[in-house]
Specification:
Blueprint lengths: L1 E5 L5 E5 L5 E6 L2 H10 L3 H21 L1
Antiparallel strand pairs: 1-2, 2-3
The protein binds zinc ion.
Length: 64
Amino acid sequence: MYSRTQNDNGSYNTRCLDCFMTVASCVETEKELDLIEVRHICPEKALAVLLEREKVIQSQAARN
Ligand SMILES: [Zn+2]
């Protein structure tokens, strides 16, 4: 999820709502925002994925 805001000059800023990082500022078009947001590698999400993987590994280990 991203929070987009528009500047007085019409350009956009976008902020990731997972890690609260400003992903981009002063972007000219919404199309460009889409591309930038897709490229954002979110540390919060990456951590969640790692923790999820760890849980799976542990549950597999417990079964064996
Ligand atoms: Zn993020």
